[in-house]
Every structure is written in C-alpha cells, then in structure tokens.
Amino acid sequence: MTTDTFTFTVSKTDGAARTGEIRMPRGVIRTPAFMPVGTAATVKAMYPDQVKALGADVVLGNTYHLMLRPGAERVARLGGLHQFMNWPYPILTDSGGFQVMSLSALRKIDETGVTFQSHIDGSTHVLTPERSIEIQGLLGSDIQMQLDECVKLPCSDEIAEKAMHLSLRWAERCRVAFGEQPGKAMFGIVQGGAVERLRIESARELADLGLKGYAIGGLAVGEPQDVMLRMIETVEPHMPKEKPRYLMGVGTPDDIVEAVRRGVDMFDCVMPTRAGRHGQVFTRHGRMNLRNARFAEDTRPLDPESKCTASNTYSRAYLHHLVRSNEILGMMLLTWNNLAYYQELMAGLRKAIAEGRLETYVGEVKEGWAKGERDGKAEIGHHADNTSMTAEG
C-alpha cells in the first residue's frame, strides 16, 4: 500500500542491522535495499520491467549526466523522468557533486557552487545547491540528494575538514531550496574523509537539520574496506534511528553485507552493471571472469539454483563465447545475472534480519564465496573503489 507522505519504519532489528520499509506515493522500498544505477535514465543493458521483476523497488538517476544530456528542462517538458524512462516507481537522484569531482577536466569550487566543464562537449556549467535541487525537481525525483563536495581519499585532514564544512553549509541551502514537498524527501550527506571527529561533527550537524534521510558519502573512493567500515561504525550512533541511512556508491556484495551488519539501509553501485558489460559475474560462488579460457567448454550454467533465466539457463561456454565476441547479448545476460544476484542477496538479508538469524546467514553467504574460490569456480571479490566507476552505470 502506498501513501501520500514519505515515511520510514523499522520492523525488525538484529544487532545493528535493521529491516523495514520506506513508503511514498510511488511505492514501497523494502530495506535493506540495493538501487540499480540508471545514470542516464537507463539501467544499462536492462529493460525496466526486468529490473522491477528482479526485486528492485527504486532506481538511481544522475543529476550531472541528465542536466548535460538531454537536459532537465527537456525531461520536465516530456513529463518527468518516471514517464521518460518508463519507470513509474520511486527514483532517487544524486546531486551531481561526485561526478563533477571525478569527470570534469576543469572545475572550480567556491562558496556559491561548482563551475565545471562538461565531459561531453567542454561547455561551461554552474551547479549551485539551489540549481541541483531545481534540476532534481524538474526530473521529478522522489528522493533528492544535497549537493556536497566529495574528496578523494587519502587526503589531508585540512582538505577533508574544509569540504565537510562547505557540504554542511550547502546542505542548509538545499534544505531551504527543497522546502516542503509532500511525499518526497531530501537527504543530507555526511562527509569528513577518514577523520572520525569530522564524520561525527558532520553527522550531528546534519541531524539538527531534521531531514527525512541521511547518507554517508565520500567512501569507496580509494580507501581500504576496514577504513570504510570504521567510518560507518563511527557515524552510525550519531544518525537518527528513525530515518533511513544510505551508503552512497557501495559496493561489492561483501561491502554491502558488512555495511548492513552495521545498520545501513540503502545502497547503490554501478558495479553489477559495469562488471556485467565487461565479462564479470557475481554469484553465490563468488565472482567469475567469463573471459577466462577455462570457461570455453564449461557446459554448466552460472548458477542452477538461481531463479534468473540468465543464471540458470545459458552455459558458461556460451557466455564465454558471447563475451569474447563482444556480443551485446553477452552484456545483457551478465548484467541480468548480476542484478539478480544483488537482489537475491538483499532479499536474503531482509529475511535473515526479520528472523533474527543475520549472523548465520552472513556466515552461509561467505562460506559460499569461499567454497567457490577453493573449488576454482570463482576469483576473490575485493572491496570496491568507485573512483573508476563514476562515468555511467
């Protein structure tokens, strides 16, 4: 059942982990949730109804890319992003700040906002907190993110502190620009690099703004997994318990499992779609690279126990052939498999938390990955570094 308002309820906890629901006019998001990335108004190599059928309740769109092409005003004239991309369910849009950091050849940040050159045609654009919220409104986004300054790690404490304070001031401006929009939400973004005191200050100041949700940004940008997890543990006690928590741009299945154990509710990452287009698959047995010659005569499917047709029907030999031949179908099938696995993992986490058996479930999942590596079915899956994954999903 949908609602006219934006609400979040936690139905069960298991340790720090929670399962619950975000309700809004366009639908219900079951948490913990993985949001497939639809950077340019498309989850690459997937039909929208496929994405929904796999269990995705929400997808992510990108302010930076959509403002450059086809343009936010054009999307608005065409009926908004939901109608434009044939996705009538919730959409979260990021603010564009991360892409400005990672893609723009020339950018200048000051108190007003960011002036940058388009990576497409070199044209100059100015993105202020107010303009970011305006663009997200024109797109018709259900969950809108504040504009923030994201720094690459490692960086000095001084750089992290300056960016964190600027992000806080921008959060206040975004809050004012967003105003009251029934049924929609604006989330603030905790920054502070890898410095615990800065992360705590950022989380506390943002909590005082009384926003509808809170994200942890600036992680999976080059730091080791243990640093990322320490930052989550540092921030979690200072994030409002009654609001959803979103870890931006993360990550590998292992990153997600560990973050869920620490109380995170929402995730997005281009990894399953990007990897699928480059011959990599995620399964219960870990990660496999279908480009490898050892799959050339392997008649087994990727995972006979999966409900996904891409996973349980096509032989690894055929998928290997498609990948080596650079066939579009190969990209489509591997992306389908990967998103199916991610959504199966999220469903498993939700069920395990509801039943109070999360640690047992996590042990089973990790044993499956380890067994795959021992049996030579898979390669080890490392922590994500999204600095190389910022262009498009």
TrEMBL record:
Name of the protein in question: Queuine tRNA-ribosyltransferase
Molecular function terms, GO-annotated: tRNA-guanosine(34) queuine transglycosylase activity
One BP annotation, GO: tRNA queuosine(34) biosynthetic process
Function: Catalyzes the base-exchange of a guanine (G) residue with the queuine precursor 7-aminomethyl-7-deazaguanine (PreQ1) at position 34 (anticodon wobble position) in tRNAs with GU(N) anticodons (tRNA-Asp, -Asn, -His and -Tyr). Catalysis occurs through a double-displacement mechanism. The nucleophile active site attacks the C1' of nucleotide 34 to detach the guanine base from the RNA, forming a covalent enzyme-RNA intermediate. The proton acceptor active site deprotonates the incoming PreQ1, allowing a nucleophilic attack on the C1' of the ribose to form the product.
The keyword Glycosyltransferase is assigned to this record: yes
Disordered: region residues: 373-393
Coiled coil start-end: none
Similarity-based family: Belongs to the queuine tRNA-ribosyltransferase family.
Catalytic residues identified in the record: D94, D268
Organism, scientific name: Microvirga subterranea
